[in-house]
Amino acid sequence: MTDDEITGEDLADGVWAGERWERRTFTRCDFTGADFSRWETRGCTFTECDFSRADLTDSRHLATAFRGCTFRRTVLTGAELRQCSLLGTSFVDCRLRSTRLDEVDLTLVGLGGADLRGMDLSGLRLREANLVDADLRRADLREADLSGARLQGARMEEADLRGARLDADGLVGARLVGARIDLPTALAFAAAHGLRVD
């Protein structure tokens, strides 16, 4: 085992504020309560790691993968993720509204009940994501891929859904009053609600 490949370590309450990590791999590591403020990662991989109660304030991540990780009550104020994968990662009781996501893969991510109001999620891949009861009011979801996403009870009032891919279940289960949609979505919405368009 090298510093670049770490498995099963208890790294809880560690302090890595302001550090820069490149091409490091962590598997099943515990980062609970760690200080990662102003932390920068590039090309790193975290698999099944626990970031509960960690502080990632103003952290920057480029081409980094967080796969199957847990973020519970994690501070993500001002965090920025670009070209990252969060495949199967879950966020519980995290404040995400000031987090910037650019070209991020959120496939199978757990965001049930998350407050995502007004966030720019345009063009992101949210396939099969759990967005049950999430608050997406006024969110920018243009061109987002929500195929298979669980949207029961999701609040999407006044969200911009133009060009977004949504399944019939999502169009029926989410609250969409005032949402901006394009013609294909309008037709899909009508069909999902049993309407005939002639």
Automatic annotation (TrEMBL):
- InterPro entries cross-referenced by the UniProt entry: 5peptide_repeat (IPR001646), Pentapeptide-BTB/POZ_domain (IPR051082)
Q: Determine the domain of life of the protein's source.
A: Bacteria
Q: Can you name the source organism?
A: Streptoalloteichus hindustanus
Q: What is this protein called?
A: Uncharacterized protein YjbI, contains pentapeptide repeats
